[in-house]
């Protein structure tokens, strides 16, 4: 079955990567710089060695292994792939090289580095590059206004590719001159990348540079209207400007659409990512964003509650009615995935109890809105000199966990109920297992304390997440592992190894059992707590995955990345179903709305973007923060979005209004060209400044009280 | 813009000399120029790469500051062994050196004596991580509590007071935007229309919420009430609370009215009860018994009340969130009154109003320092006032004392230009009182105080002005009657300066004369209640007030006291030292019956480390706590109750007091908020 095959390829490639790192420092660096390469082949293709391209890739890998005298690995790989013994003779090698060269031009595979780069070897006269570029610039400046903005998109990718060509062909001084002349023209949001480029002046530097490889292996995607494209094409053909035409043909993907050319603001809203915009067809897949039907649980109304409500003068019968109605409507939701689309763990008794608690709390929930703002309770971590790097609250807001740069994980109880460990095995034997309060008896009263520290990681803890049942805690760390901790014994149960590089974020599925992690190796992995290997590997991001979030229905996972894109992955198939571009900096926070329809994302650029998952559209832009947004959270009923940032503020946004105000028609929905209003100021409901505490986590309690957390930073 | 950016991108490459220097440091002698160029380019590129990766770690560490551990982690990513030994929370202090045509930046590694490290007491264990919850907002409104930033910053308050037309109240602004949402474009039009109209200064309303009114009542009552602990708390609140600006007009009126007239009868109750508490200043009871009137003002001499009000002024000035400029017209007259008033208490021969004058003078100096600008000219106006009344022959000794104290506190320059030239004249006047026929005891006491004040302030300045050989005769010719005494003071100041210079070298801590705070007990009656327990008065004060003349140890301090100073600056080892500040020789017999219970208290200066070395972020915190010990307890300190001056007139000044001071405001609280 497929997932098994995937795992196999994964195990196969990982150790070999390690091998390079240890045995051969120089080449190891090259490969280790793109650790995703091996695994991505595994996950993208269903089975190994089927298509000719794949075979070529394998041959290239084999060749590399052989060259580095890793005979055993060669043997294993060859056997696994079912290649003939003589596949590595010189002739075959040659064809392999040529083949993978072709592969590079065709698909997003990431074959041998040198082969990829060699695509730059074709060259024109280096002195003419400036002429070509300025010629095109002149042309674009003179076209009609309506086309200019669209055609200007070409500048940046062209500039980068031309510069790289110059560098690759050892025209260092020309490259420098070219860079200095035209780098100032580029859009300001590419500044980061330009800085990387400016440092890169030698052919040798190009090897092993991730950014460059990304740029090279993935085609830069531009969306241009048919008219504008024709204009450009005609111009280039007239001028016989083959150099530029070749680059456009080979390195750019121009997504042509029919209709009105887009305006500058529309383009700016969507651009900024490392590899251009998303192709339109990338966002065409149907996404079942609806919520799963809640299991029907009888809600026992205890007397106390009823009395309280009678006092308040509420009609008694309303509540159960409402609940039943709610579940009925969910049944009919056409956008919801089928209940067993992915297998979910069965509800335990304790889960049912928790659900009941949840519903009770939900009836006391405050309805928020622009005229009814939530109260914010701020939890400040004092004396966190070692650096607080991650925070999470349990859903019922009874526990706080903090991950610290000194590798510790700490859990606090914020209710009077103290944290207790389970008794030792010997003591447990003495307990009467038939008694009603056995769950209470197993706890060791002597260990009660307000907080517990858990040691185990060997690097800063960057991600932390409670399981929905509050029995487990996940933490991900710089040391490359994700650890599962028991909150009954306060010990580590499992260390999930696989990332090998820092794991920036991890999160439990809302139904428990599954969890997702993403890190520096540019892949996100889906795990189940009882498997030591990942069930799915989501690969496609061009840079570090910085944050991961589960969709409320647990069928999808969203990942944000340093390549400034957000991808939504289908847990069932492992495919990428949405790519959202528009951020101008690494994305550090994501949040799904409670109804599963919308996604909010925050980045280092201080902006929050809102997305419609079903249509794959950008819905709004919330400007106001002045620094990285580390935390986003929708209120329980989805009326209000709270954002917390490095700029020491918590801001509240009226997202309902943002969604309502957006003017959409069929055309915009079809093309994805949203005309965003600049109404951030109207949507901003409140700004609350802390004294000197960056806000790194937010959480709405079940009654819609907003909890925020951060470490005081004197 | 483009040019700017281009410069930023301009690839910076390490100089080839660096390569050479590094090569030499690892034993490669002759490195080819070409190799240097190639190396420097490669190295620069790799360094940039590592810096980029390190930035990732910084972002994920939720920090704005790149640390050495980020670099280490970035190196680990590249399978490179991290650099060990660069653990530092702060910047690494690279030192610069040049010579022989070379410029070098190097990391200074000091040689440390192991025995020093072993012998120094261990620093306190840093506090553990803890959680603290507070309300950042309650239903959309941010409560004005110390945990939250002040609702109106000093700048806002300033704008409000200087340009009231520009100000939109925070609340109104909020409403405006909320309402404005619906209308969208209408708001700018509205503003345009307003421009056409004549602008009237809006009547500013100072509405206080019920909570604020309650707070105001509590605070003012506690400040002038009888319970010292409560007062300390109240003053602490005034000095630190960020949300007081709305109450500021009330406070300033309270103070100014309190100085000129005694406001309410309710306060009297406190005073009547106060006579029961031994800690309390007892003169007031006497006052009140005598004055059955409800209105008590300065002439009726409630010394204690004045002291309390001055402490309120001080607390207000210490609050970093308040924009006091607007209320100086009320506060300064009140303070000046307390400095120069002819009579501040009912029995000037017994009561120690001198301390109040000293304290108020220091307050004045502090406000001159902070608020004096070229437009308001506070300092020069104040100086003129003081000088004028000092020059007047008819001025009473009390006022004279106040003027001199006020001037002296303004700093050595003022002493040099205004006081020292008049020493001879003043000396003659003192002589007339001291050696002439006894006219009035009060005059005599006044003259004594003026004399010791002059000696105290002038000695240090003269010590700096004149070169060492101190000739008594010379002094006599130059300064007249005061000359010989000045001479001995100056000499003492010099030896002390030398002594302290040594200690300074050792500890890098300068101790100026610890200022008595105004928890002054009026000695007389307190003695009867037996040995006093040291009253605990916290006066958090910024260094500016406490030692306007840092490091000049030459002032003869009234009582010879011994201080144990434990200094711990952040990151450094603790040291301990004993400083003896010798007493002034101007001891003159005291006419009052000063019981020695208070004066035998031995102040002990203890310095608490901020919160563990290396962990306090950027600024080193120093905290001094002066604790008075009963003399019995001080037996372990080898010296001197013999030196202890029961004889000195103002000795009661230093009675039971606790002085807490910190170099940076706010350092006194561990909690960050």
Automatic annotation (TrEMBL), chain A:
WD repeats: 381-422, 454-487, 496-527, 538-579, 580-613, 622-655
Record-level GO cellular component terms: transcription factor TFIID complex
Domain TFIID subunit TAF5 NTD2: 124-252
Pfam families: TFIID_NTD2 (PF04494), WD40 (PF00400)
PROSITE patterns xrefs: LISH (PS50896), WD_REPEATS_1 (PS00678), WD_REPEATS_2 (PS50082), WD_REPEATS_REGION (PS50294)
Domain of life: Eukaryota
InterPro entries with a match to the protein in the record: LisH, TFIID_NTD2, TFIID_NTD2_sf, WD40/YVTN_repeat-like_dom_sf, WD40_PAC1, WD40_repeat_CS, WD40_repeat_dom_sf, WD40_rpt
Disordered: region residues: 1-51, 85-106, 299-347
Protein name: Transcription initiation factor TFIID subunit 5
Record organism: Astatotilapia calliptera (Eastern happy)
Encoding gene (name): TAF5
TrEMBL record, chain B:
Domain (TATA box binding protein associated factor (TAF) histone-like fold) ranges: 12-78
CDD domains, per database record: HFD_TAF6, TAF6C
Keywords: Nucleus, Transcription, Transcription regulation
UniProt keyword Nucleus, yes or no: yes
Main location, first listed in the record: nucleus
Keyword Transmembrane: no
Family matches, as SMART domains: TAF
GO BP terms, alphabetized: RNA polymerase II preinitiation complex assembly
Composition skew (Pro residues), residue ranges: 550-559
Origin superkingdom: Eukaryota
Pfam families linked to this entry: TAF, TAF6_C
GO cellular component, as recorded: SAGA complex; SLIK (SAGA-like) complex; transcription factor TFIID complex
GO MF annotation list: protein heterodimerization activity; RNA polymerase II general transcription initiation factor activity; transcription coactivator activity
Stretch list, region Disordered: 143-195, 513-561, 632-673
Location(s) in or outside the cell: Nucleus
Composition bias type Low complexity, residue spans: 177-187, 518-530, 632-652
PANTHER family: TRANSCRIPTION INITIATION FACTOR TFIID SUBUNIT 6
Name used for this protein in its record: Transcription initiation factor TFIID subunit 6
Species per Swiss-Prot/TrEMBL record: Astatotilapia calliptera
Chain's gene name: TAF6
């Amino acid at each position: 079955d497929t997932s098994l095959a995937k795992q196999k390829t994964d195990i196969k490639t990982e150790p070999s990567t390690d091998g390079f790192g240890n045995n051969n420092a120089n080449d190891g660096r090259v490969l280790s710089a793109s650790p995703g390469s091996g695994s991505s082949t595994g996950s993208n293709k269903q089975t190994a060695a089927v298509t000719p391209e794949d075979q070529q890739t394998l041959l290239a890998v084999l060749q590399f292994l052989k060259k580095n005298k890793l005979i055993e690995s060669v043997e294993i790989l060859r056997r696994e792939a079912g290649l003939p013994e003589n596949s590595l003779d010189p002739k075959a090698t040659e064809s392999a090289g040529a083949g993978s060269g072709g592969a590079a031009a065709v698909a997003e595979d990431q074959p041998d580095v040198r082969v990829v780069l060699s695509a730059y070897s074709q060259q024109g006269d280096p002195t003419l590059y400036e002429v070509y570029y300025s010629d095109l610039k002149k042309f674009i400046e003179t076209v009609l206004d309506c086309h200019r903005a669209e055609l200007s998109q070409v500048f940046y990718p062209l500039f980068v590719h031309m510069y790289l060509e110059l560098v690759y062909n050892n025209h260092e001084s020309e490259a420098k001159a070219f860079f200095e002349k035209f780098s100032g023209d580029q859009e300001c949001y590419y500044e980061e990348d330009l800085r990387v480029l400016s440092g890169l002046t030698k052919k040798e530097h190009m090897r092993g540079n991730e950014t460059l490889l990304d740029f090279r292996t993935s085609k830069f995607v531009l969306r241009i209207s048919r008219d504008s494209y024709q204009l450009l094409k005609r111009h280039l053909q007239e001028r016989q400007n083959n150099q530029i035409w070749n680059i456009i043909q080979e390195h750019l993907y121009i997504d042509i659409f029919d209709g009105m050319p887009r305006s500058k603001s529309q383009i700016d809203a969507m651009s900024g990512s490392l590899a251009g915009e998303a192709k339109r067809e990338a966002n065409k897949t149907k996404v079942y964003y609806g919520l799963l039907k809640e299991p029907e649980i009888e809600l026992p109304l205890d007397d106390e509650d009823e009395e309280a409500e009678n006092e308040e003068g509420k009609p008694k019968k309303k509540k159960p009615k409402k609940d039943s109605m709610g579940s009925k409507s969910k049944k009919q939701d056409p956008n919801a995935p089928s209940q067993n689309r992915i297998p979910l763990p069965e509800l335990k008794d304790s889960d049912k109890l928790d659900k009941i608690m949840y519903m009770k709390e939900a009836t006391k929930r405050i309805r928020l809105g622009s005229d009814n703002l939530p109260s914010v309770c701020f939890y400040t971590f004092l004396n966190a000199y070692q650096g607080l790097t991650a925070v999470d609250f349990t859903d019922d807001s009874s526990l706080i966990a903090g991950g610290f740069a000194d590798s510790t994980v700490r859990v606090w109880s914020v209710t009077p109920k103290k944290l207790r460990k389970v008794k030792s095995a010997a003591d447990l034997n003495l307990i009467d297992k038939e008694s009603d309060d056995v769950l209470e008896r197993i706890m060791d009263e002597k260990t009660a304390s307000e907080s517990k520290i858990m040691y185990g990681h060997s690097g800063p803890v960057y991600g932390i997440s409670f399981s929905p049942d509050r029995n487990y805690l996940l933490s991900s760390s710089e040391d490359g592992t994700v650890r599962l901790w028991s909150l009954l014994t306060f010990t580590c149960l499992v260390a999930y190894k696989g990332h090998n590089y820092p794991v920036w974020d991890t999160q439990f599925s809302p139904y428990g059992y599954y969890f997702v992690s993403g890190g520096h190796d540019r892949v996100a992995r889906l795990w189940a707590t009882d498997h030591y290997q990942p069930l799915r590997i989501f690969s496609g991001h061009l840079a570090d995955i910085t944050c991961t979030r589960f969709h409320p229905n647990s069928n999808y996972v969203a990942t944000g990345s340093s390549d400034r894109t957000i991808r939504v992955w289908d847990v069932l198939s492992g495919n990428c179903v949405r790519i959202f571009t528009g951020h101008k900096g690494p994305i550090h926070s994501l949040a799904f709305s409670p109804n599963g329809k919308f996604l909010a994302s925050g980045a280092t650029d201080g902006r929050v973007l809102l997305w419609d998952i079903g249509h794959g559209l950008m819905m709004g832009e919330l400007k106001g923060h002045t620094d990285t947004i580390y935390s986003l959270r929708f209120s329980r009923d989805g009326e209000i979005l709270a954002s917390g940032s490095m700029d020491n503020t918590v801001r509240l946004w009226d997202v309902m209004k943002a969604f309502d105000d957006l003017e959409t028609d069929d055309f915009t929905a079809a093309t994805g060209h949203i005309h965003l209003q600049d109404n951030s100021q109207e949507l901003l409901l409140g700004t609350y400044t802390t004294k000197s505490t960056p806000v790194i986590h937010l959480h709405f309690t079940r009654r819609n009280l907003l909890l925020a957390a951060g470490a005081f930073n004197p | 813009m483009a040019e700017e950016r281009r410069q930023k991108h301009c690839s910076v490459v390490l100089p080839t000399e660096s390569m050479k220097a590094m090569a030499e440091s690892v034993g490669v002698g002759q490195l080819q120029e070409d190799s240097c160029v190639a190396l420097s380019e490669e190295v620069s590129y790799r360094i940039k790469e590592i810096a980029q990766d390190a930035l990732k770690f910084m972002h994920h560490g939720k920090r704005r500051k790149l640390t050495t551990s980020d670099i280490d982690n970035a190196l680990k990513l590249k399978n490179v062994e991290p650099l060990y030994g660069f653990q530092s929370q702060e910047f690494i202090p690279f030192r610069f050196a040049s010579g022989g045509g070379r410029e070098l930046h190097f990391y200074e590694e000091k040689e440390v004596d192991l025995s020093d490290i072993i012998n120094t007491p261990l620093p306190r264990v840093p506090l553990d991580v803890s959680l603290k919850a507070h309300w950042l907002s309650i239903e959309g409104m941010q409560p004005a509590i110390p945990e939250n930033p002040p609702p109106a910053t000093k700048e806002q308050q300033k704008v409000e007071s200087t340009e009231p037309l520009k100000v939109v109240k925070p609340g109104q602004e909020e409403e405006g935007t909320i309402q404005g949402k619906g209308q969208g474009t209408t708001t700018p039009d509205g503003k345009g229309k307003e421009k056409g109209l004549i602008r009237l200064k809006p009547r500013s309303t100072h509405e206080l919420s019920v909570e604020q009114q309650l707070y105001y009542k509590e605070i003012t009552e506690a400040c002038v009430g009888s319970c010292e602990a409560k007062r300390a708390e109240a003053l602490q609140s005034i000095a630190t609370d960020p949300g007081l600006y709305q109450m500021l007009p009330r406070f300033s009126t309270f103070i100014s009215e309190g100085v000129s007239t005694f406001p309410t009868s309710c306060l009297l109750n406190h005073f009547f009860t106060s006579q029961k508490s031994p800690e309390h200043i007892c003169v007031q009871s006497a006052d009140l018994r005598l004055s059955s009137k409800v209105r008590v003002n300065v002439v009726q001499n409630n010394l204690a009340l004045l002291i309390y009000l001055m402490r309120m002024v001080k607390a207000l000035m210490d609050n970093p969130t308040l924009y006091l400029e607007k209320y100086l017209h009320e506060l300064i007259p009140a303070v000046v009154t307390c400095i120069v008033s002819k009579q501040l208490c009912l029995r000037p021969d017994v009561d120690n109003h001198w301390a109040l004058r000293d304290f108020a003078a220091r307050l004045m100096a502090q406000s001159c320092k902070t608020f004096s600008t070229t437009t308001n000219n506070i300092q020069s106006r104040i100086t003129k006032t003081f000088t004028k009344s000092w020059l007047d022959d008819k001025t009473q000794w009390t006022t004279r004392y106040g003027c001199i104290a006020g001037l002296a506190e303004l700093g050595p320059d003022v002493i040099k230009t205004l006081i020292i030239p008049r020493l001879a004249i003043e000396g003659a006047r003192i002589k007339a009182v001291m050696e002439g026929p006894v006219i009035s005891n009060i005059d005599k006491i006044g003259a004594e105080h003026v004399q010791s004040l002059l000696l105290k302030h002038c000695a240090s300045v003269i010590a700096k002005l004149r070169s060492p050989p101190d000739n008594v005769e010379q002094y006599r010719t130059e300064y007249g009657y005061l000359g010989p005494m000045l001479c001995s003071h100056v000499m003492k100041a010099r030896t002390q300066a030398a002594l302290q210079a040594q200690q300074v070298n050792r500890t890098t801590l300068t101790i100026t004369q610890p200022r008595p705070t105004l928890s002054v007990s009026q000695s007389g009656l307190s003695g009867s209640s037996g040995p006093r327990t040291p009253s605990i008065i916290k006066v958090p004060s910024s260094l500016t007030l406490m030692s306007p003349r840092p490091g000049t140890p030459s002032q003869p301090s009234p009582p010879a006291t011994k201080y144990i100073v434990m200094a711990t600056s952040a990151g450094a080892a603790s040291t301990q030292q004993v400083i003896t500040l010798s007493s002034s020789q101007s001891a003159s017999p005291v006419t009052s019956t000063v019981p020695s219970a208070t004066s035998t208290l031995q102040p002990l200066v203890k310095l608490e480390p901020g919160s563990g070395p290396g962990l306090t972020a950027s600024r080193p915190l120093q905290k001094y706590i002066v604790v008075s010990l009963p003399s019995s307890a001080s037996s372990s300190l080898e010296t001197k109750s013999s030196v202890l001056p029961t004889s000195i007139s103002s000795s009661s000044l230093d009675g039971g007091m606790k002085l807490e001071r910190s170099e940076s405001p706010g350092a006194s609280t561990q909690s960050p908020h």
